[in-house]
C-alpha cells in the first residue's frame, strides 16, 4: 500500500511584476546599475505579488479549493490538513487553522510544517506516513506564500544589490496544494523519499525576525538574499542524494524519469543541474521565469504546470527535489 497524489491545485495572485518593474522598485537607476540585469541575475521574466490584505492563508485556501475540485474531494472528506510554507499569517496559532476555517473543514486535524523551501516536500512525506499508518485516509497538503511582503527593496550600494538580487528580486507569491489518499496499486504513488540536514549551515540566509531572538525588530523580517551555500547544496543534491535514490528505487535517472521538479531558485541553476546530471533540460520543470521563486510553493506550482502542459500524466515517473536554508536537501520519487 502507498499514498498517491490524487489532485493538484494552484493559485496565483493577480498582480504581475515584471523584471523592469522590480528594477524600478529596487532603485537600479539611482545606484547606476544597468537595465536588464534583474532578468539576467534571476532568470525571471515576471513574478506575482499578493495584495496588501491577501495573506498566506488566503493563498493556500484558494490553491486547496482547486486541488479538491480536481480530485473530486469535499471538505467533509479531508482527514488532515498540513500547511507548509516559508511565510505564515502570524506566530500563533498555526496558519493551518485559518486555512481549515476558510475551507470549512470539520472533524479533521491540522498543523503547520516549517522547513524553509523544503516545507512542502516535508509535508508530502508526513502525509505519506499518516496514510500508511492508517491515521488518515485523505490528507490536504497546502502552501501559501506571500513572500513579497518580506522583500527589502532598499539597497545601500551597487555591490549589495548585485549580491542580494538573485534571491531577493526572484521572489514571487503563490500557492499550491496536493490531495493525497491511500493507494493499493504499487505502480502508483510515493515510491521513496530521502531527506538530509546539514545543520552547520543553519546561519546562512536567516530571516532573523519573528522569533524570540529579535521579538520586536521589524527590520529583521526581511529576506537577506545570499545564495552561495544554497547553490552549492543544490549541486550536492545531484551528486549525493539522487544516486542513493536511484539505487534504492531501482530507477535510472536519465532513462526512467519523465520529469524532474526542482527548487526554483534561479533558471541558470536548473541549467547547471541539467549539465551535471546529463539530464535533458526539457524534462526539468521550470517555472521561475514565469512566477519567480515561490518558496515552498515551487514544487506544487511546477507540478501543476507539468500536468497542464502534458509532461506529467498518469503513470509518469517524477523526482521532486529541493534545497532549503538550514541547510536541508530532499528528494521524493513518485509515480503519478
Describe what this molecule looks like in 3D.
By secondary structure, the protein is α/β, with parallel strands linked by helices. It folds into two domains: 2-183, Peroxisomal Thiolase, Chain A, domain 1, CATH 3.40.47.10; 189-335, Peroxisomal Thiolase, Chain A, domain 1 (3-Layer(aba) Sandwich), CATH 3.40.47. Helix content is 35%, strand content 22%. It contains eleven helices and eleven strands. Helix 3 (56-71) crosses helix 4 and helix 7 (228-249) crosses helix 9 (267-277). The protein is globular and about 60 Å long. The two termini are 15 Å apart.
Compose a concise summary of this entry.
Residues 255-333 form the Beta-ketoacyl-[acyl-carrier-protein] synthase III C-terminal domain. Keywords: Acyltransferase, Transferase. This protein has 336 residues and is an alpha/beta fold.
Task: Describe this protein with a few key phrases.
four-stranded mixed beta sheet, Peroxisomal Thiolase, Chain A, domain 1, 336 residues, ACP_syn_III_C, 2 domains, ACP_syn_III_N, five-stranded mixed beta sheet, acyltransferase, alpha/beta, 11 helices, 22% strand
Write the CATH architecture name of the largest domain: 3-Layer(aba) Sandwich
Major sheet details:
5 strands, mixed
Low-confidence stretches: none
Report how far the terminal alpha carbons are from each other.
Answer: 15 Å
CATH first level of the largest domain: Alpha Beta
Give the number of helices: 11
CATH topology of the largest domain: Peroxisomal Thiolase, Chain A, domain 1
Oligomeric state as shown: single chain
The level of helicity is 25-40%
> What is the count of structural domains?
2
Mean pLDDT, rounded to whole units? Answer: 90
> How many strand units?
11
What does the overall shape look like?
A: globular
Radius of gyration: 19 Å
Q: Strand share of the residues? A: 15-25%
What structural class is derived from the secondary structure elements?
alpha/beta
Domain Beta-ketoacyl-[acyl-carrier-protein] synthase III N-terminal: 111-197
Keywords: Acyltransferase, Transferase
Domain Beta-ketoacyl-[acyl-carrier-protein] synthase III C-terminal: 255-333
GO molecular function, one term: 3-oxoacyl-[acyl-carrier-protein] synthase activity
Amino acid at each position: 500500500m502507498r499514498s498517491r497524489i490524487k489532485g493538484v491545485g494552484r493559485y496565483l495572485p493577480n498582480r504581475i511584476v515584471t523584471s523592469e518593474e522590480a528594477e524600478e522598485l529596487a532603485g537600479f537607476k539611482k545606484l547606476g546599475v544597468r537595465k536588464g540585469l534583474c532578468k539576467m541575475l534571476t532568470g525571471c521574466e515576471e513574478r506575482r505579488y499578493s495584495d496588501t490584505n491577501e495573506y498566506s492563508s488566503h493563498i493556500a485556501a484558494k490553491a486547496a479549493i482547486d486541488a479538491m475540485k480536481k480530485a473530486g474531494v469535499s471538505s467533509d472528506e479531508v482527514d488532515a490538513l498540513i500547511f507548509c510554507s516559508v511565510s505564515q499569517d502570524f506566530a500563533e496559532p498555526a496558519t493551518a487553522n485559518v486555512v481549515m476555517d476558510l475551507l470549512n473543514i470539520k472533524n479533521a486535524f491540522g498543523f503547520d510544517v516549517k522547513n524553509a523551501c523544503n516545507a512542502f516536500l516535508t509535508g508530502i512525506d508526513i502525509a505519506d506516513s499518516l496514510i500508511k499508518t492508517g491515521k488518515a485516509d485523505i490528507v490536504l497538503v497546502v502552501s501559501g506564500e506571500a513572500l513579497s511582503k518580506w522583500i527589502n527593496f532598499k539597497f545601500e550600494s551597487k555591490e549589495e544589490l548585485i549580491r542580494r538580487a538573485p534571491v531577493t528580486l526572484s521572489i514571487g507569491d503563490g500557492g499550491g496544494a496536493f490531495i493525497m489518499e491511500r493507494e493499493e496499486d504499487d505502480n502508483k504513488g510515493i515510491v521513496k523519499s530521502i531527506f538530509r540536514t546539514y545543520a552547520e549551515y543553519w546561519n546562512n540566509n536567516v530571516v532573523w525576525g519573528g522569533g524570540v531572538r529579535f521579538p520586536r525588530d521589524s527590520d529583521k523580517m526581511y529576506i537577506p538574499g545570499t545564495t552561495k551555500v544554497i547553490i552549492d547544496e543544490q549541486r550536492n543534491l545531484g551528486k549525493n542524494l539522487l544516486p542513493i535514490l536511484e539505487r534504492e528505487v531501482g530507477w535510472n535517472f536519465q532513462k526512467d524519469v519523465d520529469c524532474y521538479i526542482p527548487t526554483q531558485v534561479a533558471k541558470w541553476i536548473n541549467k547547471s543541474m541539467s549539465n551535471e546530471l546529463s539530464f535533458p533540460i526539457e524534462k526539468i520543470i521550470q517555472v521561475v521565469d514565469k512566477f519567480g521563486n515561490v518558496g515552498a510553493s515551487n514544487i506544487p506550482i511546477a507540478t501543476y504546470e507539468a500536468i497542464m502542459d502534458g509532461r506529467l500524466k498518469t503513470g509518469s515517473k517524477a523526482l521532486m527535489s529541493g534545497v532549503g536554508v538550514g541547510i536541508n536537501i530532499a528528494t521524493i520519487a513518485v509515480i503519478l
